[in-house]
Queue: 2 jobs
Job 1
Amino acid sequence: MNQMKNIRIEKITLNIGAGKDQSRIEKGIALLSMIGSSTPIKTVTNKRIQEWGLRPGLPIGCKLTLRKAKALSVLPRLLEAVDNKLNERQFDEHGNIAFGIQEYIEIRDVKYDPTIGIMGLQVCITLERPGYRIKKRRMLARRIPSRHRISKQDAISFMAGNFKTQVEAE
């Protein structure tokens, strides 16, 4: 098999949206640092939505990005929280996977913390192949050719083969 066709995990992003509730954001930061053993960052709004009371620069959530070994160590625990079952709708056409976890206590090795309470989070997995650097590099950035992109079916077979995940049809 061509070595450049191997699929790997680029990053895992854990996200908690809290709206304007600052105490919920602080609880989310504590939760994400407990799950990923790294420091999360606050996400801020860029738009003004007057009906919701949002203005640019207002924190509305938090996120944590895990790469390489940290991502590979956390992913099996996150998949166990959803019983290693994903739906076909949770895969997009570019090889990305997104799913939600209703309660963080479903994640293995994460204990209930009364200061946090019950809270859920969103998990996004980004897949890539060797050579994807050409779209991010500073000089001579190029598009990824269509024959080298990760399709939905490629992502499904990668998750089923490497992480023993069952993918259910819609």
Note: The beta strands are 8-17, 41-44, 59-67, 85-87, 96-101, 121-128, 166-168.
Job 2
Amino acid sequence: MAINLQKGQKISLTKEAGGGGLTKIVMGLGWDAKKTKGFFGMGSKEQEIDLDASCVLFDEAKTPLDAVYFGQLASRDGSIIHTGDNRTGAGDGDDEQIIVDLSRVPSNVKSIVFIVNSFTGQNFSEIENAFCRVVNGANNQELARYNLSCTGNHTAMLMAKVYLHNGEWKMHAIGDNADGQTFDHLMPAMIAAI
């Protein structure tokens, strides 16, 4: 059973996957736009909100080495792949996914920070049912889930950090609110959080 993470919580993904052998994870992001009332309160409509999942790879000195996002769907070394941009949040399940082949992540990468930002500029008060989750890529077992539906006027969130520590892949649910339309805008906040 997946762990429902709280802000700041750290877990061992390796242990949650049953020990050794965790070689691939999928970070899934899902969301829905809040429905708004129509004219004179009649009917309702759903606006389109383009949330973007991204990740940045950092070395031990907190220097960014690479990024995976809607404009670069794979890391230069090929260890991380983004499955593509969902511009509306429509549909059930994961709206965007980032697949990490842990066995291919270069040894100089000390942390991978996952973020979500509203490319269209809406803030999180206009979003509901937002979550990120980590799935074992080998068997589709959900290892951890983090609810992102915290309303507020922020346009981005530092979701989580995945890192290797003493031979185990671990995850830290950061959960810090931020502002910015792309991962570049969030770089100072990411560096401060890791």
Note: Residues 50 and 66 are 23 Å apart (CA to CA).
